[in-house]
Amino acid sequence: MPDKPQQNGVAERLNRVLVEMARTMMQHKDVDQNLWADAIKTAVYIKNRVTSQALPVGKTPFELWTGKKPNVSHMRVFRSTCWVVLHKIHIDGKFGDKAAKAVF
Description:
The chain is 37% helix and 10% strand. By secondary structure, it is α+β, with helices and mostly antiparallel strands.
């Protein structure tokens, strides 16, 4: 029935798990709440690449969907420091910085 979240137990539980994951990441790095959407996207990305009791042993949602094991070697800590390579037009002269410090 419309507007009855009690009938969507699985979906509501997943929403709660994702919000809790995002809240934990944001509190751990003391992030402003205006980045909640990025934290939720990160939580969904992680959730799709870890195993669950609801799935066959050792399988992830990503693996069941694509048939390939997920590669998680590129994952970093939420809100960690990173460097972004600048395009030539943004480099100031011959000795200008070729990268800018950013937040992942």
